[in-house]
Amino acid sequence: MLYDTKKDPENDTLIPGYPMKSTFVNVRIQVPSDLQEYIISELLDYGFDAFEQEETVLSAWISPEKYHDVLKSPLSKWLNEQPGECRIISEEHIEERNWNEEWEKTIRPQTIGAFFIHPTWSLEEPPKGA
Which residues lie below 8 Å from residue 30, measured CB to CB, with a gap of 6+? Predict the structure, then answer.
């Protein structure tokens, strides 16, 4: 876990030991679909730990502590040596957040006929007549 310091508002001193919001790096890689399983198995050895497969793009996630210049160069070289024009398309640092809370924001109560359907976390009152 990464730790950050925080300023004490009363005396403007630093207080060490506050956990930082962790981030992760999403590396998008151009990979033909028939090579993706092989590439994933090799990326695990590089320290990547989550993957999303699309038709010709593989998204791979890794902690920023593991993804640095010492890793990027050999990884790019190795990808370029693979058949099918494998290459890194993009890298994005993403701040960790509560993905369940993000999903819950997209679910809205609905009235269907005489029924009011709502998620358990919704505080919205049913409309009159439902």
Answer: 56, 57, 85, 86, 87, 88, 89
